[in-house]
């Protein structure tokens, strides 16, 4: 069955769902009580993340002087990053308790970047972590995988280095494909493999894949998970 990727507007509406709606959704999906409780915790963390971001934006808007705004904007964003990092760590601990969370998130929000072979590999995705962000000097995307029949690596990473003009350099993991596997194994794919991205050097100032992961999948992960589950349950 084709799974339509939700728009940002749709995701925003889902982000506004309250805890009771999440509970009803889990009940409709016939998931057990543990999942309901974990979804509730996930939504609570989501509301805290939203609160931190909104407070920072409000504080920045209050600043009138352009120089003052430039100085304090950086200080406020650093404080924002510290608080959000703690909340993302808390979110990750909850996500660990939800089976197939990240593989479902990728299938819901990243399918246009995956070919058929990639989708098989993504089933083994255990976690996604984003350290830093594009507006800082360095940002690292980390994907951790369960043991799988495709490659030996348990972790794939890609790091981007930035100046005020955008990306200046990047580095990624060399994937150790198992015998008979790899991006060149089997019939030629119509769509380029996502996994070539880890070893490619980024020549542009912006990286489309990195932007989708950091700005969409990482930030809106709970909504993508909900969307995927709803699709699978025919809603």
Automatic annotation (TrEMBL):
The UniProt entry's GO CC annotations, sorted and at most eight, read: nucleus
Q: Does the keyword Ribonucleoprotein apply?
A: no
User: Which Gene Ontology molecular-function terms are recorded?
Assistant: histone binding
Q: Would you kindly state one Gene Ontology biological process term found in this protein's UniProt entry?
A: nucleosome assembly
Give the transmembrane ranges. Answer: none
Looking up InterPro entries in the UniProt record yields: NAP-like_sf, NAP_family
**Pfam families from the UniProt entry:** NAP
Keyword tags: Chaperone
Transport: is it a keyword of this entry?
no
Q: What does the similarity note say?
A: Belongs to the nucleosome assembly protein (NAP) family.
Which named protein is this? Uncharacterized protein
Species this chain originates from:
Papaver nudicaule
């Amino acid at each position: 069955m084709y799974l339509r990727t939700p728009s940002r507007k749709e995701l925003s509406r889902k982000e506004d769902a309250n805890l009771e709606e999440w509970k009803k959704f889990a009940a409709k999906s016939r998931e057990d009580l543990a999942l309901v409780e974990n979804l509730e915790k996930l939504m609570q963390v989501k509301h805290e993340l939203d609160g931190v971001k909104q407070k920072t934006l409000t504080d920045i808007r209050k600043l009138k002087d352009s120089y003052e705004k430039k100085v304090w904007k950086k200080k406020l964003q650093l404080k924002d990053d510290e608080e959000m990092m703690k909340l993302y760590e808390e979110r990750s601990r909850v996500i660990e308790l939800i089976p197939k969370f990240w593989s479902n998130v990728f299938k819901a929000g990243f399918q246009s970047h995956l070919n058929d072979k990639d989708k098989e590999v993504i089933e083994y995705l255990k976690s996604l972590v984003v350290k830093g962000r594009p507006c800082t000097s360095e940002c690292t995307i980390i994907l951790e995988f369960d043991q799988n029949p495709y490659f030996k690596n348990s972790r794939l990473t890609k790091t981007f280095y930035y100046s005020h003009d955008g990306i200046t350099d990047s580095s990624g993991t060399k994937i150790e494909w198992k015998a008979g596997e790899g991006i060149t194994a089997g019939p030629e794919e119509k769509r380029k493999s996502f996994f070539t991205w880890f070893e490619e050097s980024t020549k542009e100032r912006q990286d489309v894949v990195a932007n989708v992961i950091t700005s969409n999948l990482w930030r809106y992960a709970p909504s993508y998970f909900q969307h995927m589950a709803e699709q699978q349950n025919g809603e």
